[in-house]
Amino acid sequence: MVPGSTATAAAPGSAHASEAPPRNPGIDLDLDRVLELRVNRSAAERRTASLAGRRSVKKTWQAAWLLRAITLMDLTTLSGDDTPGRVRRLCGKAKAPVRPEVLDALGWDVAPPTVAAVCVYHRYVDTAVRALEGSGIPVAAVSTGFPHGLSPFAQRVAEIRASVGAGAREIDIVVTRAHVLTGNWSALHDEVRAFREACGDAHLKAILATGELGTLTNVQRASMVAMMAGADFIKTSTGKESVNATLPVGLTMARAIREYFQDTGHVVGFKPAGGIRTAKESLQWMILMKEELGNPWVTSHRFRFGASSLLADIERQLEHAATGRYSAHHRHPLA
After folding, report:
1. Which domains does the chain have, with CATH numbers?
2. I want to staple 179 with a disulfide (CB 3.0 to 4.6 A). Which of 42, 155, 184, 293 is the partner?
3. pLDDT digits (tens, 9 = 90+) for 209-242
4. Radius of gyration of the chain (CA)
5. Does residue 79 sit in helix, strand or coil?
6. Which residues are catalytic?
7. Phi, psi of 296 (to 5 degrees)
8. What is the distance of C-alpha 150 from the center of its chain?
9. How far, rounded to the nearest angstrom, does the alpha carbon of residue 296 sit from its chain's CA centroid?
């Protein structure tokens, strides 16, 4: 067995080792708490720049961490040329992301890993639900006028309800960036609260589009307001912005999650998305979560990658660990 493949902490293996925490019910908007938040960008950048130099995971332990990373993925296709066939192939990959012979060579002797969820547009929710039937893998739908969130409010709420009705168990919503940029925190709280109510039993992941928020202070305040409104996860990006997930933003959001938990006792998850393409980057994000929030935040209940091309590089690294050779990238297509 790969060292740590059944552990929950020091060497992450199974992402489902811990039980799902109770959902975040949200709280009333505490504007004084929001406005007191400040972020020192230079300090955040220094902190995250040190990750690669201070922490490294090698050999079989690296394989164990990368297998854990697979179980933290929201495997995603959000392209204009998506088709039902592509979505079905993606779902097939979600159920069997690593070839059995590679797992055997690594000494993996527990249930084969699967990804955490499959993320698609509303149009393909039903297709994905059918393709994943019996696997236990939930379907996440991007919603509320993704990626810009500028469609009429009633239409955005209706889109959430339609995706939930089609079988989506997670909804990735986008917030109105103007509320953040103008400091209209009550409007942001009301918006996310309404989206949360429309989700019903489906988990809500609030996409903040951090690359368009201007400052890390805005990122932290928007994170806090979204959590106060009842977001189950806060997410960096749509993947469509010019700047997506960055480690300083991740640090800022992780610390907002920690402060919210300390203030309220409510657990909120974190999802970086956009631009995370290599196995090395995935390890940096997991180390950041472990150091800032602890072992429980290196499970799929509290941490996700928004991933499309990341899986292929992780597969290549795992094959190298198993055989000593790197495979060609084109041997690991998603769809």
Report:
1. 31-331 (3.20.20.70)
2. 184
3. 999 999 999 999 999 999 999 999 999 999 999 9
4. 19
5. coil
6. 172, 235, 271
7. -60, -20
8. 23
9. 15
